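Review session, final week

We close the course with one last complete record, chosen because it touches almost every idea we covered. It is Olfactory receptor, a protein from Tupaia chinensis with 319 residues. Go through it on your own first, then we will talk.
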Amino acid sequence: MFSWNLVLNQSGPTEFVFHVFTAVPEFQVLLFLLFLLLYLMILCGNTAIIWVVCTNSSLRTPMYFFLSSLSFLEICYTTVVVPLMLSNIWGSQTPIPLTGCGAQMFFFVTLGSTDCFLLAIMAYDRYVAICHPLHYTLIMTQKLCIQMVAGAVGLALFLSLQLTALIFTLPFCGHRREINHFLCDVPPVLRLACADIRVHQAVLYVVGILVLTVPFLLICVSYTFIASTILRIRSAEGRRRAFSTCSSHLTVVLLQYGCCSLVYLRPRSSTSEDEDRQIALVYTFVTPLLNPLIYTLRNKDVKGALKNAIISKAASDTI
């Protein structure tokens, strides 16, 4: 009897709609303008970092190669989410088809996972630079840097493809289901399935460990060696400079991994859909916005290169 009802419910195309933030028109306008402003700031800030790194020869080092790669990821990551989110903020609940939801989930998980892997790679880069400075150029070659970024993207693609394909083999009862979120993220979509999802939740937990826990442990190990090396530096100025190159990265790591762990690694019994949506706003807007701010405001090389690039651009325009 259940299987027959399931077939009836599954006949016709399945669509999803997103839960609206608010039904008050005035708040809708404010939220739209706020999120649009944040999105434009993310695009401008991260694009500026990519432009400065690509146009300034003094910044063509592994650290800034990884930083520009991170900025490119943040642009793609927010672009996968924000435009669709803005189009649904007015309360019209424009439906998204099953394939569209699957595509958004795939790219969101891929880019988010690559982001986490890249932060671990950046920690390794700082470890080599501080703990083995004489061998830094021999170890962190351009070929190795490209291979590590390509490996991070490849692993993220593999995990995301497996997870997304597994989730969208589930039946979703009804023609139109409301996702209590602003994107097709894994946990809220899983809640809409009308089947046993224990295996899928276990797979999600394993993927979460591979994407969040393992890279975070590698980052912790890297910074344990880094801290040990910094404490052995005799001059206070040397310790300050060594710490300043790591503090920006550590800030981003704690924010990114902390928020993502609260969403993907907490037991389902202790999670709230509304809490997950609020936390998701942090790693959708705050982290991508803080990356360019933290790395430019706390980095003299980037600030100097950005200032020189703006001055030279302005001078060339006046000629």
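Two points worth writing down before the exam:
The two ends are 79 Å apart (CA to CA).
The domain at 95-300 is CATH 1.20.1070.10 (Rhopdopsin 7-helix transmembrane proteins).
Good luck, everyone.
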